[in-house]
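INFO batch 0412 | record 1 of 1 | parsing
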Amino acid sequence: MSSKEKKYISESGFTLIEILIVVMIIGLIASLIAPNLLGKFEKSQVEVTKAQVETLSSSVLSFILDTGRCPKELGELIKSDHKKWRGPYLQKQNIPEDPWGREYQYKCPGEHGRFDLYSLGPKGVLDDHSITNW
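INFO prediction complete | emitting tokens
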């Protein structure tokens, strides 16, 4: 191998400084983009929960119109022995959980209306961040 070929081989590749600069640039870009993506994900969870609360509320109202009483629990929207029951009132054969993996809370009679239906939201407690039907 000639000295010219050896010099060319030893000069190919990236230096440690070049690699560190690229890694720092990627880290900077990720630090700018990540908060925006996380914020959109949390917002989408809230929007999904609002839609599910509305769907469940409509199903409860349909149950009330058909039977003349509130369901004792949300499971009656899928299966009930009531003679005037015309369900199932939900397309799926299960009651969905909220995006945080918790069951929707249901009370009838409610404190805020005929019935209360809500998700405890991201914090898992009933507060201003809970998603409700009232």
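INFO post-check: Residues 47-132 form a domain with the Glycoprotein, Type 4 Pilin fold (CATH 3.30.700.10).
INFO record closed
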